[in-house]
Design goal:
324 residues; alpha/beta; Rossmann fold; 2 domains; seven-stranded mixed β-sheet; six-stranded parallel β-sheet; globular
Length: 324
């Protein structure tokens, strides 16, 4: 039995963690869990085995330092410790990193790719939701060296992806029956995690991402449509075999058979990532060769479920516990 503390339990990812942990048999959390201040939580860090930090970026850094000093395991769901390079953090997030000394101690917790490093890790940076869908959708191709330099990603996110904040564009009347692109034509900060992961999978590479996120009027879910080209001679069957081999035995990767396309329903309320592979129109020889669609639930595989998977891996218990 393990005890968990959750910072930010009143937010969407924090409360999702409370719910996931509560239904689990291996994590202790009675429904009437005590809600205490962050300061009190930091003072009582010795009482728990792990702290999940579900705070906005930049708000996580000092709590991470305080918890880390007590020796408790930390899984940080914010972006504060995802980028290995503090200069990159400043560039993408617009603020200087105040704990660059801690960055080398963090493991990037994308379970299917970094499983070996996560085992035994005490400090884990939980990946972003958009990058989890894109990185899992492209990892086999990048690993094989078959991914085209230019990758076009069109992603949609449910409104909970923005957190429990009040901004006009997230209000019901603005978001409902609408589909709103945002940060189109600029380099969205989540590209940093795509580059950090995929550029290093097979030697050193520089992929160019065009990433267009959209606000979709559903509560939860991410769907990334990814347009790629592959080297001549690489067939659809070779790609299917590559994905099947790469993800063989992965409990949360759901590869769809030929002819099916991943949708939000494939992954809603689960810790799964569903991936489909579809050949593009052969009558367009200069267009992309394949369209990969990757979907997940932003609050589970994109956040709190992956955080539990990371914790399970880090302490050496079955990584699916509490998640199936
Ligand atoms: N939402 C997603 O789909 C998703 C997916 C992946 C990663 N993430 C990341 O996970 C983190 C949490 O996201 P969320 O969607 O759960 O956000 P959220 O719904 O806005 O919740 C934020 C939580 O942090 C608390 N908080 C806000 N500012 C704070 C501060 N300065 N000090 C201490 N506590 C503070 C809030 O408390 P109050 O209630 O008192 O304001 C609330 O409990 C973010 O870094 C986000 O980028 C989110």
């Amino acid at each position: 039995m393990y005890k968990a503390g959750i910072a930010g339990a009143t937010g969407y990812t924090g409360f999702e963690l409370v719910q996931l942990i509560q239904r689990s048999e291996v994590h202790a959390a009675p429904w009437d869990y005590p809600l205490i201040s962050l300061q009190e939580g930091m003072a009582r860090a010795g009482e728990v085995d792990v702290v999940f930090l579900c705070l906005p970026h930049a708000a996580s850094i000092e709590p991470v330092r305080a918890f880390q000093a007590t020796g408790v395991r930390v899984v940080d769901l914010s972006a504060d410790f995802r980028l290995a390079d503090p200069a990159a953090y400043q560039r993408w997030y617009g603020v200087a990193h105040t704990a660059p000394d801690l960055l080398p101690q963090f493991v990037y917790g994308l379970c299917e790719i970094n499983r070996a490093q996560i085992k035994g890790a005490r400090l884990i940076a939980n990946p972003g939701c958009y990058p989890t869908s894109v990185n899992l959708g492209l990892y086999p191709l990048a690993k094989a060296g078959w991914l085209s330099d230019q990758v076009i990603v069109d992603s949609k996110s449910g409104v909970s992806g923005a957190g429990r904040q009040t901004k006009l564009q997230y209000s019901f009347v603005e978001a409902n029956e609408n589909l709103t692109p945002y940060n189109v034509g600029v380099r969205h900060r989540h590209i940093a995690e795509m580059e950090q992961v995929l550029n290093r999978v097979n030697g050193q590479h520089t992929y160019r991402f065009i990433f267009s996120p959209h606000l979709l009027p559903v509560n939860r879910g991410i769907l990334s449509t990814i347009y790629i080209s592959v080297p001549q001679g690489v067939t659809e069957q070779m790609i299917r075999d590559l994905y099947a081999e790469t993800y063989a035995g992965e409990p949360f990767i759901h590869l769809l058979p030929a002819g099916q396309i991943a949708s939000l329903r494939h992954t809603a309320y689960t810790n799964r990532c569903a991936i489909s592979i579809t050949p593009a129109d052969p009558a367009q020889p200069d267009g992309p060769d394949y369209i990969i669609v990757a979907t997940l639930d932003n609050l589970i595989k994109g956040a709190s479920g992956q955080a539990i998977q990371n914790f399970n891996l880090s302490v050496g218990i079955d990584e699916t516990l509490g998640l199936l």
